[in-house]
Amino acid sequence: MSAAHPVPVSPQRMAVLSTEAVDVLYRLGVADRIAGVSGFTVYPPEARHDKPKVSGFKTARLARIQSVQPDLVIGYSKVQRALLDECEAAGLPTLWFNHRHIEGIHAMVDTLGQCVGRTEQAHTLNQQLRAHVAQVQQAAARLPWRPRVYFEEWHTPLTCGIQWVSELITLAGGIDVMAERARRDPFSARAVTPDEVLAAQPQLVLGAWCGQRFDTAQVLARPGWAALNATVLEMPSSDLLAPGPVALERGLAQMLAAICRVVGTTPEALGYQGPLDWRAPAAAH
Length: 285
What we know:
Blueprint: E1 14-16, H1 19-27, E2 34-38, H2 45-50, E3 53-55, H3 62-66, E4 72-76, H4 81-89, E5 94-97, H5 102-115, H6 119-140, E6 148-155, E7 158-160, H7 163-171, E8 175-176, H8 179-182, H9 194-200, E9 204-207, H10 216-220, E10 231-234, H11 237-240, H12 245-263
Parallel strand pairs: 1-2, 1-4, 2-3, 4-5, 6-8, 6-9, 9-10
Antiparallel strand pairs: 6-7
């Protein structure tokens, strides 16, 4: 977390440029204090329809942000750092997050709760998220075996999943074959070669290309990959690549479902009773 100008106590008109922060603020009951959101906001769906769009994810016009008269601008990642620097230069208070792991998600919830005067609600939300994680872990502990998993976040060059995605794989009972690489920063440090993936012998290949549909046919057409003894599945990027509550709910549940598919069981057979409203599509291989 970083802020060049003092963050106002209980801000009333927030411009929120990251979808996970929008989701948290809605859950904390302060949706009425959100003056504008990013065009990439996904959750909750009503935010995308009801709130003015003041930015993309990477770009924005300062005048557009200023037009909603924010008393706080909230953003995420190094990609948005330049946007927040521009806001700060114009005298707008900012709050910047750059967490890369699951504990950072919980810390973000706590920080936003403190910021808007909803500390008890934030604590309750974190308790609910931790309870769901524990439920998935209990189910995963009943898996008969743990598959080796490669998660692909981008294709040119091949880039493995970020740290919180790697942690979700582990929580859901998989073995991330790129676990060490997932902890590297910046994004370019997570690049992998096709040969490295083949050598890791994954049994499950999951893909969520940020901003694009994962092309399973393209993946299997890579030299040598047709012989890969792995199930290849597309995963929903909006549920996995935004480090917020949805990743710990829908994202983690979907990860468990994908791993169960390879192992030959179901989440329900393992005792999972969470809000699983997604099933893995037909396997490409």
